[in-house]
Request: fold
Amino acid sequence: MADLGAYLDKRDFGATPEPQANGTPSALGLRYSMQNHDATRLHWDLRLEWDGVLLSWAVTRGPSLDPADKRLAVRTEDHPLSYLTFEGTIPKGHYGAGTVMLWDLGWWQPLEPAARGLAKGHLKFRLHGRRMTGDWNLIRMARRDKRDNWLLVKIDDEAAGQRDPVARYRTSVASGRSFAAIRADKAACPP
Reply:
């Protein structure tokens, strides 16, 4: 099982609403989520359930459905399974300060053995989300600094080329709230 030490060391759970407990692995399949994080820089956090944790990448400009777009995805610390559906505001002065929106939720499946793909730096997978579907690649780039940089690339399939999901989806997939409503901890406005 992967280690949550880095996640736990970076957080003060008396001051942040982020989950501390790990949660329970799914018996039905590998879960996936993507959270839109309005922090120092707006980005999307890709979370893939694997080996008892959520493998995590910060996708700097969000996912693209254009196979020609290669989006930077910086590998971050593993997160607990209970983070899968986290939505809320991390207070100023704390690691990751800003508002977190649950942007997509679903399942993922490796298209090749995941452990091998992670080790070699090329993970091929399929998403079955409410907003994101189809086949994707995560490809590790050569390391030039302390960051573990990957590229998130859409495979040319039926989901490719559809309307830009970053521009299309501006509210939570779970609560229907905007960033402002999450920050104010208000319920979504009725349609």
